[in-house]
Automatic annotation (TrEMBL):
InterPro entries on file: Cadherin-like_dom, Cadherin-like_sf
GO terms of biological process kind: homophilic cell adhesion via plasma membrane adhesion molecules
A GO cellular component annotation in the UniProt record: plasma membrane
Protein name: Protocadherin
Species this protein is from: Paramuricea clavata
UniProt keyword terms in alphabetical order: Calcium, Cell adhesion, Glycoprotein, Membrane, Transmembrane, Transmembrane helix
Pfam families: Cadherin
């Protein structure tokens, strides 16, 4: 084997017989030929052999190793397996080669978020200031990566049923805050349902109940302190990064205002274009009111205006950027492929065209190709149209087979890639220079043997048709202990 360790992956819960991805161009080499060359691969016991099996795929005389599943796999049971694979030939005794393959089990969204409590209770004074944190809900998801990320929101945004809108819920942290002045006369018990939804595809969700008991606080007269300053925002601008799948009506920003004192402010959005955001006029909480589409518009920029009639007004710039994940990796349309290349092609010559697809949109789905690895990496190049060409002016004498690992990489900020192995067989006549099939030959002879007909090594040289070859001993025979038949 060329490497001691290879790495592949497979999705959990896939049907048995699913091929492990990412194992590109794995094969063992053997200097012997025919029946004595590489014959088979097998997974050694104690290495997940009950869950995987080795599969041999032959292309142009080369036997490639692939791995496929024997059962459905559960990532929650084990996130990876390390297999020890043995290659053997057909000779006797049978020489063997060993390599290891790590198989990562990729997550599917098979777990729902779970709240730490089925019900939350909290007591709040009716005079609690706006933006005060009163409660934090929390849920966990046993899945991994994207499937374990959670949004929180009130169920009213799903079912349109009435719920109290005096509170806001941070979709990322689960923090509940007071969104407006609380009215004790509306009742002293407020009950809401909060949903935790993961970011898997399709999504999974669960619910919990929040009960807020409202107590009457001592009201204080509204006064403007003497010598109060004009209110202003604590920052000159706000940059908010949100994901495209953020649920509608999610709270995304609460700008901090200083010198607000006990004034009654009014917040307004100023934008020359229609935007999918609205601000609560009393609290300044900014909400998403329409589904986002960052493919049609990558950034939103607008102003929030704060008006306080007693002391003046202030404004702040808000920038909304895309913080979305790159969901999909490129996938090649074919797995391992084999091609032929003519030895007498001295100029740059087209070999094959590769193609991968990525279902993501925008930059996340735009692909670039390159030759990532392989023993033919210096002999070929790939152009902007995904075509592989040979490098001109190279000597192909003695070259029989070469491998290329082609990588397709998307243009996302957090890019992902896919790979394909191309086996290239160099065919056609050599340049008529004889070549030995082996670099070293071994032979044995008994001492004191006087027979001149004993052969101590069997050699064979390749040569062009209708050409004769002559054998000579050039070094190591200073005592003339050996002679060679110049013809055979």
């Amino acid at each position: 084997f060329k490497k001691d360790l290879y790495v592949g992956s497979v999705q959990e819960n896939e049907d048995e017989g699913t091929m492990v991805q990412g194992l590109h161009g794995i094969y063992a080499t053997d200097l012997d030929t025919d029946a004595n060359s590489v014959n088979s691969y097998k997974i050694l016991p104690g290495n997940g052999e009950d869950k995987f099996e080795a599969v041999t795929e032959e292309l142009s005389g080369v036997k490639f190793l692939n791995i496929r599943t024997k059962v459905k796999l559960d990532r929650e049971e084990s996130s990876f397996y390390v297999l020890t694979v043995e290659a053997s030939d057909g000779g006797k005794p049978t020489p063997r080669a060993i390599t290891q393959i790590r198989i990562n089990i990729e997550d599917t969204n098979d777990c729902s978020p779970q709240f730490t409590s089925s019900e939350y209770r909290v007591s709040v004074l009716s005079t609690t200031p706006v933006s005060t944190e009163i409660l934090k809900v929390h849920a966990q998801d046993q899945d991994s990566e994207q499937n374990s990320k959670i949004y929180y929101f009130f169920k009213k945004f799903l079912t349109k049923t009435h719920n109290d809108d005096s509170f806001t819920l941070d979709p990322h942290t689960g923090i509940v805050r007071v969104a407006r002045s609380l009215d004790f006369t509306a009742g002293n018990l407020i009950q809401m349902t909060i949903v935790a939804q993961d970011r898997g595809n399709p999504t999974k969700r669960t619910e919990t109940v929040v009960k807020i008991e409202l107590f009457k606080g001592l009201s204080q007269p509204l006064e403007v302190p003497t010598g109060s300053q004009e209110p202003r925002f604590a920052k000159q601008s706000y940059l908010v990064r949100i994901c495209e799948d953020l649920p509608v009506n999610s709270h995304i920003l609460h700008p901090v205002v200083v010198h607000l004192a006990r004034l009654k402010p009014k917040f307004t959005v100023l934008s020359p274009q229609e935007i999918p955001f609205e601000v609560d006029a009393n609290s300044g909480f900014l909400y998403l009111v329409k589904s986002l589409d960052f493919e049609s518009r990558q950034r939103y920029e607008f102003k929030l205006l704060l008006t306080a009639s007693e002391t003046g007004e202030a404004n702040v710039t808000v920038l909304i950027d895309d913080a979305d994940e790159n969901f999909n990796a490129p996938v090649f349309e074919k797995g391992n492929i084999a091609m032929e290349f003519q030895r007498n092609w001295k100029l740059s010559h087209f070999v094959t065209k590769v193609k991968a697809t990525d279902p993501d949109e925008g930059l996340d789905g735009q692909l670039n190709y390159r030759i990532d690895d392989g023993d033919g990496v210096r002999r070929f190049y790939i152009d902007e149209r995904e075509r592989i060409f040979s490098v001109p002016g190279l000597n192909w004498e003695g070259v029989e087979q070469l491998g290329l690992v082609i990588e397709a990489r998307d243009n996302a900020t957090r890019w992902r890639s896919g790979k394909q192995f191309v086996l290239i067989s160099v065919v056609g006549e050599q340049d008529c220079n004889p070549m030995f099939e082996r670099v070293v030959y071994h032979g044995n002879v008994r001492e004191h043997l006087r027979s001149t007909r004993t052969f101590v090594a069997v050699t064979k040289a390749r040569l062009c048709q209708d050409r004769k070859v002559q054998y000579l001993i050039t070094e190591g025979n200073s005592r003339n202990s050996f002679e060679i038949d110049q013809c055979s």
